[in-house]
Batch of 2 targets.
Target 1
Amino acid sequence: MCSPPRSLYELRTCLEQSFPPSDERYGYFNLPKVVYPADPDFSSARRTTYGNTQPAVVVMAETADDVRNAVTCAAEAGYRISPRGRGHSFQALSNSNGYVVIDCSLLCKPEEFVFSHEEGDWILEGQKYIGTVYSGSGCTNAVMLAATAKEFAPEEGGLFALGACPSVGITGYLLGGGSGDVTPSTGWGSDDVLELRAVIWNGTNAEHITANKEENTDFFWASLGGGGGLGVITDIKTAIVQSPEPLPHEDRRKFLYIQNLEFHYFGEESKREGLESFRRFLYEKTEESHKFGGGGELSSQYFSLSGTYLGSADEFIESFGKNGLLQDISPFLGYHTIYQKLTSEADTVEDVCDGT
């Protein structure tokens, strides 16, 4: 079926009928429900982390009905749609030129989250998930982390799969695959998605569907890792995975943030030894290496790692040490030992938020 020719008049007429003009303001930027390029609020409404684009209109959706109405108006007027969570798309795909942007940030309503405490086996041997959460698609990593910490007691060890930046929206992260510091333990972000709700255009009208492993399966699987684009996601159900058990002598679960752990080379043999030790650790010692996730830098003099270890400082030092990944270099060479590179061992989420 061919799309109808674009008509700005039809688009505006439909949007005005669906969203009658009012003085109400919405969201962090205090915006009207519908914002056009000629409006004084447009520069704020089209804001995005990357790119400098010019959408046809921005609609601030509060509900699934708002999304459905916006999709209907766009489709019937011949316009394409850019769903936007938090605007972190590197390609600015959430804010495309000439598209109808449907901003879903107002769909994040923590007071309406639906948690369960069901349990089941998860990806790694002996691992389990300890619950699920149904949340709005416009939430950020920070919101989901805080909600999970509030719902699950510290001794339960609940993990929500999240990336490194607290302000990134969960929908783009999860649908794009989702890689973060806890990915080696929880699985990719898309692994943790159990169900989606979305508004799609079926050729004649906008439809709000549910997609999972049994219902609308094509939509479900195509959305996981493909980056979205098949519809406007309104809600996501994700698994809460349990963090690794503490060692017998540890009284509770801990995690460790590691900043710039450096392995220095002293000749080609040292370089080969260091890189091969890290390769073996990742691929042959998965029962240990899944507790560490992060990123790194490779140079001609050293490689460095930063990230999160799901365990205590003692456990980290023991694990990395026996796998040949720690060096105790004499301070007079200008390098620090591993013990000075451990920057923060946190017991609770509050500790991290307080910066301790």
Target 2
Amino acid sequence: MAWRRLAQRCAPIGAPAALLGLGAARCEDTMQVPRTKKTPKELPEYFVPKVPYPAWDADWDGRRRARAEAKKRGAPPAPTRHILLVRHGQYDEASRDDDKRILTPLGRDQAVATGLRLRSLLDSGSPKSPIKMVSSGLVRAKETADLIAPCLPEDRLVYADPNPDLNEGRPAQVIPGRPYSNEAVRVDQRRVERAFRDIFRRADPRDDGARHEYEIVVCHGNVIRYMTLRALQLPPEAWLRLCTFNCSLTYLVVRPTGSVSLRALGDVGHLDPPLVTFSMHHGIEW
């Protein structure tokens, strides 16, 4: 009876968790979970969307009303945001010291090839579309961005300071799989979610009248997988089911209406087969 009363005070988190039995609810307040031989010491905490799955939250970025009011006032049309998430190149994983976790020669070649691919994509669009690039604060991401930057149109590029909120981590529990420490997930989730909300949003109207704007984000596999699922309003606990190779491109579009679409996930078509790696795994047969 104690467990039943506790469950009634918890918020449901959706079908995937409900199928698990244990962990099928996330308590809104901190509570002690009755312990039995079948109850784990700590139940995993799952992300609870504002609008339950599979419904779409039309005001997911909190900008819906402001955009409607701006339109009534006759504000210029807001541009479409093109968000290109780039995983860093292959790096030396032998050390735990970030200063020593530098790109391998192959990783540097991957980064240059990715820069050339991005330039080709950008040249196919409007020559007036603004471009911003930002990386995480980790060396492997900063090196990758530094190798990409010379390939991009200098007159349109704003190269922002590294953002440590984009650093690698475990921003959500994983299903299927063993649960992580809830506290560790909370720390990473707060940080990565902050970066997500800064990048994924409806654009503001621009004085220059640009109809499209680009943001290139050079970061990490787990961060890219989390952000992709969050942008599509899918359970972020599915992140480990997605795969992002080194220097792969994940491409999403955010319309002024707030709609979000995924155009590419982990694309490595710009890399010759010898350049395709997932960490220290080469090629696709691993």
